[in-house]
Design brief:
The protein is built from 7 helices and 4 strands. The chain has 155 residues and is an alpha+beta fold. The protein has a 4-stranded mixed beta sheet with strand order 1-2-4-3.
């Protein structure tokens, strides 16, 4: 209730986005939240991959350098299958963001159904292959339905 009063509909949308993505994860697939939404770990029943729980603490403050180094070392050792970010990954020169941009692709979400969050999937992972196959199947079904509809109009 407090979060709803504080952040209104954005909190509801973010919760729905995390829940939707969680349904697509297998139990052994891991997550890193590059945001201040530490609650996403609880909602996904996952543990954070390092000591950093809030992006703000890794980008500013007295612990930022240590949190960044420790978290980045853990991410490199065992890259998570999915990264959750509030909007785009930023700041662009932060070491965690630089590493992520070299190793992750944007989650296939053409309709922005996960707004206000952006999801990034580990390049060439099983999760990415599953999502791409699903995206192709949806596109093929949409194309076939559109072709049938256009054909029915010309009769």
């Amino acid at each position: 209730e407090w979060a709803w009063r504080q952040h209104n509909v954005l909190f509801e949308w973010a919760n729905k986005a995390v829940a939707d993505v969680g349904q697509q994860l297998r139990p052994d697939e891991t997550v890193f939240s590059w945001s201040d939404e530490a609650w996403s770990y609880a909602l996904l029943h996952r543990l954070p991959p390092g000591p950093m729980l809030w992006k703000q603490h890794a980008t500013s403050g007295p612990m930022a350098g240590w949190l960044t180094r420790q978290t980045l070392a853990n991410l490199r050792r065992r890259p998570p299958d999915l990264i959750i970010s509030w909007q785009q990954l930023s700041p662009p020169d932060h070491p965690i963001v630089v590493w992520a941009m070299h190793n992750y692709d944007r989650f296939p979400d053409e309709g922005r159904s996960h707004f206000p969050l952006c999801m990034y999937v580990l390049r060439d992972s099983a999760l990415e292959h599953r999502l791409m196959a699903r995206t192709r199947a949806i596109a093929e079904n949409t194309h076939a339905a559109t072709t049938r509809h256009i054909g029915s109009l010309s009769r």
